[in-house]
Amino acid sequence: MKRFRRHSAKANFEHFRVLTARYFKQIFTNVGTFLPLLLEAPVLLVILYLVADGDAFTARNVGQANIATFVLVVMATLMAILNSYREICKEREVLAREIYGGLDVTAYVLSKIVVLSAIGLVQCALLFGGSLIFIDYAFPHPATGYLLAYLSMALANIAVTALGLFISALLKKSESAILPVLLVIIMQVVFSDCIISLEGGAGNLKYITPAAWGISVFGNVCGINGWNERFYKDMYALSPAIGLIVLAVFAVVFVFLAIVRLKREFRQKD
Q: What is the pTM of this model?
């Protein structure tokens, strides 16, 4: 069983700082990496413009408002999984050499989640901010509505980014990620408890779906439950704080699992 070199907290923080700076530099100096990241949000914004009704929230049109909410939050999670699912498995060989040379696994994974989360925050800001041009959300409490709506997208993005890193830590090659990534995407779409309503055991899967919690926050701050006597969703009635906390817990758990997975894998190698 391989024994890792132990370093002080200061040395591990230095690993984290250097890796974070290196990943940012790699992204901004590689056109093939930077350009897709730059274009993701604008392309999705065009799609939102084509499918969303800009007056849905002011007219209190539940169906159209749900479509806009669904598209915004699910798109945030799709950007996250596409950005993260290859990040660890594509560096497998280099990572092995660096870890056996003394690299701290925790610092490595944390640097990944920090860089990808920063990218996700910017992408979500572009997507939500751009949507304000043609959608009037008519928040009952604008002072907190805009912030909480953005946070619902941002934390959903970060939670799925962490999930993508965990998937990447499980796999040896990025080609093997097609099926798990497809399952993650399908789960965010089908079990988001917005456009598609499921009952029974299948409906309970929404509680482990990041997009569903992001949508619950967005739907709550827009006050959609109070628009129509025939429409009511339990998750829209939850406090936004609950949804945001659950998303943060998802992110922490998946980051932790990615760290544990990598430590177990490299300890077992000679």
A: 0.92
Q: Indicate if the pLDDT at residue 132 is higher than 50.
A: yes
Give me the phi and psi of 32, to 5 degrees please: -65, -25
> Are 83 and 37 in contact, with CB atoms under 8 Å apart?
yes
| pLDDT at 201 exceeding the cut of 90 | no
DSSP E strands: which ranges in the chain?
A: none
Q: Which two tokens stand for residue 65?
A: 């408002």
Q: What is the mean pLDDT of the chain?
A: 91
Helices and strands in the chain, H and E counts: 10, 0
Q: Is 110:9 a contact under the CB 8 Å cutoff? A: no
| Local structure of 233: helix, strand or coil | coil
Report yes or no: 16 and 110 within 8 Å, Cβ to Cβ. yes
How does pLDDT run across 56-106, given as a tens digit for each residue?
999 999 999 999 999 999 999 999 999 999 999 888 888 888 887 788 899
Q: What tokens appear for 11 in the block?
A: 């040395």
How far apart are alpha carbons 88 and 141 in whole angstroms?
A: 41
Of 56, 28, 74, 46, give the one whose Cα is nearest residue 187. 74
Instruction: To the nearest 10°, report the CA torsion of 90, 92, 97, 100.
Output: 140
CA distance 56 to 59: 5
Rounded mean pLDDT of 219-227? 93
Which is nearest to 180 in space by CA: 265, 82, 108, 73?
Answer: 82
Distance, in Å, from the CA atom of 123 to the CA atom of 126, rounded to the nearest integer, reads 5
For residue 182, how many other CB atoms are within 10 A of its CB?
Answer: 11
With contact defined as beta carbons under 8 Å apart, do 85 and 177 qualify?
Answer: yes
Give one DSSP letter per residue of 78-105, joined into a string. Answer: HHHHHHHTTTTGGGHHHHHHHHHTT--H
Widest CA span of the chain, in angstroms?
65
Please report the sign of the dihedral spanned by the C-alpha atoms of residue 134, residue 137, residue 141, residue 147: negative
